Amino acid sequence: xxxxxxxxxxxxxxxxxxxFAAAGSAIGLGNIxxxxxxxxxxxxxxxxxxxxxxxxxxxxxxxxxxxxIGRNTKKSAITAYKKLSPDKPWFIGxxxxxxxxxxxxxxxxxxxxxxxxxxxxxxxxxxxxxxPDQLGNLFVSHISGVWSPIFWHLAVIVISCLILFGGxxxxxxxxxxxxxxxxxxxxxxxxxxxxxxxxxxEGIKFLLYPDFTKITVETIVMAFGQAxxxxxxxxxxxxxxxxxxxxxxxxxxxxxxxxxxDTGIALLAGFAIFPAVFALGFEPxxxxxxxxxxxxxxxxxxxxxxxFSTLFFLLLGIAAxxxxxxxxxxxxAYFVDEHHWGRKKSVILTGIALFLAGLxxxxxxxxxxxxxxxxKTFFDLMDYMASNILLPFGGLVIALFVGYQWxxxxxxxxxxxxxxxxSSLFKTYGFIIKYVAPALILLVFLNAIGILNMLWK
Length: 457
Ligand code: PHE
Prior knowledge:
Layout: H1 3-9, H2 15-26, H3 29-41, H4 45-73, H5 77-84, H6 92-124, H7 132-143, H8 147-165, H9 167-195, H10 201-208, H11 217-230, H12 237-242, H13 251-280, H14 290-299, H15 305-339, H16 343-363, H17 378-406, H18 408-415, H19 425-448, H20 451-456
Helix pairs in contact: 2-9, 2-13, 2-15, 3-11, 3-13, 4-11, 4-13, 4-17, 4-18, 4-19, 5-6, 6-8, 6-15, 6-16, 6-17, 7-14, 8-15, 8-16, 9-13, 9-15, 10-13, 11-17, 11-19, 13-14, 14-15, 15-16, 17-18, 17-19
Bound molecules: phenylalanine.
């Protein structure tokens, strides 16, 4: 690659940088906001078990496949598919990723905005002395305002764009490095407090004792969707990030670490929230308000509660930003790679487009709340289509592409740095990518779009 081109696309400077950036993308609202609320709505432990199986059996191998495509081609998804297979339509897997990025940012930016506003609410609104009812009401009144969600949505987009101007190495790496350890520590403190609350046992049971009678097709669809969403798979994010990585990086190790950290943080979030849900009188099915109403109440049970609450929402806000920029980078890299636009222009146009795409989501709890599609508000529809349909579709394309077009051997050659990195797991990887992942994703995917249901009847 010419020096000029390298400068335009950027690269990760340090080894640890790529791990942090990939983990920064994976760890975000998906772990701390979405995981507990989807687990709560889908029966707890049984959902979590299926989720963990998805992570190990499909998530990790698909991440490896994405890494190998990205680093081999040094391109973002669409361009990468075109480069490896110029005359077949595999690039559709990249196109669906760009669409998924737009859909995802539409609601992600709104939730990131809630998080930002809760930083200030923690300082000024005495969250920690409120009752569960008051916290619930505060959340509802916040999301049903019109200007406040739009203002915070705009703030998220503007800050993300400012970080993205710096390019990959300045922007993404730096932020991820500071954030993750701090967030981890704070979660551990929260778990400790939650577990020592009187009545927390019910919450532990909810997380650990699966009730298999509660599992439905929908539970499995949601667990799959959550696995893809949480690991940032199927959108082209991991292909794009790996395209900035050096040839000497140990990709299997990175994938393992990212997957372990991501899953660990999600479980920690679960243990921070559910014991407290039961101990303090909340409902596990509280939906998207769960984190915003339960955790302030837990902070209320701690010394310096307001301070920790502020710190928590600040860290969660930054975690959301490092994921948001990875979602936006998919679109930006598409403009840079496919249309050869400059980085600045790509960032600005992406920012404007995403601000507009987020407006209906921002308004879907207030002025647009009566407009629903398939029983879902615009916000929920964007989430459902991105997480449960587009991301699994992207994952399916990656698996089929590596398994049957590009070749498992070439992927393993890339993952092993030309045979230098040895792992007994490569064989299993090949088997899963060729047979297990496509079969399972296809099954769940067809279910999600209702085709199997139709055939059934
Ligand atoms: N994984 C991120 C989170 O958990 C969200 C995300 C999804 C980021 C897809 C990039 C691609 O918050």
